[in-house]
Write a structure and sequence with these properties.
mainly alpha; 3-stranded antiparallel beta sheet; two-stranded antiparallel sheet; 11 strands
């Protein structure tokens, strides 16, 4: 496989983001009547369910604010992010600071949403508020961000992040992964509150490596309340492949923020391990859910290939390549890049498909769902472009230094 041109690949990713993905969501998701965002969109952007998933709206808010903060914004995007915040706080926030999962189009009572994602609205509120504060440093954004993070931490202490299929008291990789990233974003954007974010990050960076089974060298999704792995049950052996990649760059970003160089050094080797079991060598692409012992996996999403698994793999590989300039990571990135763009990118409409069969046949052509929003794909496109450009600059500097030779 020919080596990717880093700058041209970065340009391709940025062009997809600015010319196709962001305009699609600005046009079809924004609700001009009630505020907030529609989150259930057909292939062409038509709304197929007017109910609004709150954690998806927070993801939309984050991404519209991010577009503005990285130089790809329009005045419209800033307005969309800020009105989304107003809608969520006004209609979805409870008196205890917790967010409902689902509201009707006008913000009134809707269905129950998906209770397996109960606390995710809180952690993504924290992440979105940090990005909003970068855009417009209003105290209400900072205050709400810290409130939401504390609520999410409380839900973790109560036993997991609220996913209904987790045994009571189980420790989840996803919970630690999300809280370390949210705390790092708040710390970076807003500063700290009496060392709170620093403490959350420090504790999470201790816990996260414990989800790596030392003999299997695989990253499992849960540990029991006692901290031990449960390899006797399907639940205990569950691997969400995308989380294996996502935790690498989430935790790496947090380690960079707090200056934990020793943790950061371990990311590339861990990422290689995830690659060792993630790739489907029969059909290409990546498995979405796996069993740690390669026994039958009956978890939700098993047997399909998910867009977010592939976007997180691209992010994890680009991040490790930026850290090391090791061509092995760029080769794996190119492999995932080719399969992902060929099978998930919709040739007929903007935005990408969410789920395909093992061989790439489209299983669901919806563009917005209770789990898919203006988030994983655009975040991938922007961060990958950024890291590939940084890697190209580092490589050029190294090449220049070698040419110049040592000083006399």
């Amino acid at each position: 496989m020919a080596m990717l041109d880093l700058k041209k690949t970065a340009e391709r990713y940025e062009r997809e983001l600015t010319d196709a993905i962001a305009p699609f969501w600005a046009e079809h998701a924004a609700d001009p009547v009630h505020g907030g965002f529609y989150t259930n969109l057909c292939r062409d952007g038509a709304v197929f369910d007017p109910g609004k998933n709150v954690w998806m709206m927070w993801r939309d808010i984050y991404m519209f604010a991010k577009m503005c903060n990285v130089g790809f914004g329009k005045p419209e995007y800033a307005r969309l992010a800020e009105q989304g915040f107003d809608f969520c706080v006004r209609h979805a926030r409870g008196g205890d600071g917790r967010y409902r999962l689902y509201v009707a189009a006008d913000g009134g009572e809707g269905g129950a949403g998906f209770p397996m994602f109960r606390a995710m609205a809180d952690v993504y509120a924290a992440i979105a508020c940090a990005e909003l504060y970068r855009l417009n440093p209003k105290e209400e954004y900072r205050r709400e961000g810290f409130s939401a993070l504390r609520v999410y931490e409380e839900s973790m202490r109560g036993g997991g992040s609220g996913k209904r299929f987790m045994p009571a008291g189980a420790k989840e990789l996803g919970a630690y992964m999300h809280i370390v990233y949210a705390a790092a974003e708040l710390l970076s954007a807003c500063g700290d509150e009496d060392g709170y974010c620093q403490g959350v990050i420090t504790d999470a960076l201790v816990e996260i490596p414990k989800f790596r089974h030392p003999q299997l060298r695989r990253w499992l999704g849960m540990r029991g309340a006692d901290g031990e792995f449960d390899l006797a049950t399907s639940m205990g052996r569950m691997i969400a492949t995308g989380h294996g990649f996502e935790v690498m760059w989430f935790a790496g970003y947090a380690a960079e923020i707090v200056g934990d160089a020793e943790f950061l050094k371990r990311i590339p080797a861990w990422t290689r391990e995830v690659c060792g079991y993630a790739f489907d060598r029969k059909y290409g692409g990546l498995f979405s859910m796996q069993d740690a012992l390669d026994l039958p996996c009956c978890m939700p999403g098993a047997g399909t290939k998910q867009w977010w698994t592939h976007t997180e793999a691209l992010l994890g590989l680009a991040y490790s390549y930026k850290l090391t300039l090791d061509p092995w990571f760029l080769e794996r990135f190119a492999e995932v890049d080719e399969w992902t763009w060929r099978n998930f990118r919709d040739p007929g409409f903007p935005e990408w498909f969410g789920a395909v069969a093992p061989g790439g046949e489209v299983l669901c052509d919806a563009k917005g769902t209770p789990a898919k929003a203006f988030f994983h794909l655009p975040r991938c496109l922007w961060f990958c472009a950024k890291w590939l450009r940084e890697a190209a600059e580092m490589a050029e500097r190294e090449k220049s230094e070698k040419k110049s030779g040592p000083a006399c």
